[in-house]
Design goal:
single chain; 224 residues; mainly beta; 4-stranded antiparallel β-sheet
Length: 224
């Protein structure tokens, strides 16, 4: 369900949702290396630094931390406890900036095959081994997001973009440690494809290009 390239080691990491592991393909050797066992239903990965990768486990209330040198899961960081009468939340998407590792959480769908309810944005601390919900999403915006969402960060860690199924686009700024920009109705009919250029100057959501301040230009409609 997710692919991540490790340029330094010439590897491709593959989140194997069904087998609860990260498959590791060596580009140099053209073969698969032994997989890395992680939590239940890994759904997305992010490299925090050249030596550490984190994995959002959508079937357990934990984030896996992987040492890329030894190719071993070194620990699982549990989500902060919620009240017993609260709806359980599970990781959905994860991304790392130069200042913070953010991940989204959503509740399980009420019935199989239906869309999940609204979620929220959490933050992971590798230093303390804890995770906690963000206080807000910028200014007075409460920490509530659409259940269909994707986080993505450029390779240089200069930002994190959050695309939501309702067409809302948010930009996290690691310098101010806040969601500095929010664009509602930024796109329509979200299919779930989100990427970023390495320098953070552009983000692509499905068929629309956004610049570093989330101004949009649809692919193929630019004029010379």
């Amino acid at each position: 369900v997710d692919l991540l390239t490790d340029e330094l080691r010439q590897r491709v990491y593959i989140a194997n949702y069904m087998l609860d592991q990260i498959d590791v393909y060596s580009i140099r050797e053209r073969r698969f290396l032994p997989p890395v066992r992680v939590g239940n239903r890994p759904i997305q990965m992010a490299m925090v630094n050249p030596f550490t990768m984190v994995v959002a486990n959508s079937g357990s209330e934990a984030i896996s931390v992987i040492d890329l040198e030894s190719l071993q899961e070194t620990r699982q960081i549990q989500m902060a406890p919620v009240p017993l009468n609260a709806t359980p939340l599970f990781p959905r998407s994860i991304a790392a900036s130069s200042n913070a590792v953010l991940f989204t959480v959503i509740p399980l769908p009420a019935t199989a095959g239906t869309a999940p309810g609204n979620g929220s944005v959490w933050q992971l601390s590798l230093a303390t081994g804890t995770s906690f919900p963000r206080l807000n999403l910028g200014g007075n915006a409460i920490n509530v997001i659409n259940g269909r969402n994707v986080l993505r960060a450029p390779d240089n860690g200069s930002a994190i973009v959050l695309a939501e199924g309702n067409g809302t686009l948010r930009l996290y700024d690691p310098v101010s440690d806040s969601f500095a920009i929010t664009r509602t109705a930024a796109f329509t009919a979200f299919r779930g494809s989100v990427s970023a250029t390495a320098d953070g100057n552009f983000f692509i959501v499905d068929d629309t290009i956004f610049n570093s301040v989330l101004a949009a230009r649809e692919i193929g409609r630019a004029h010379v």
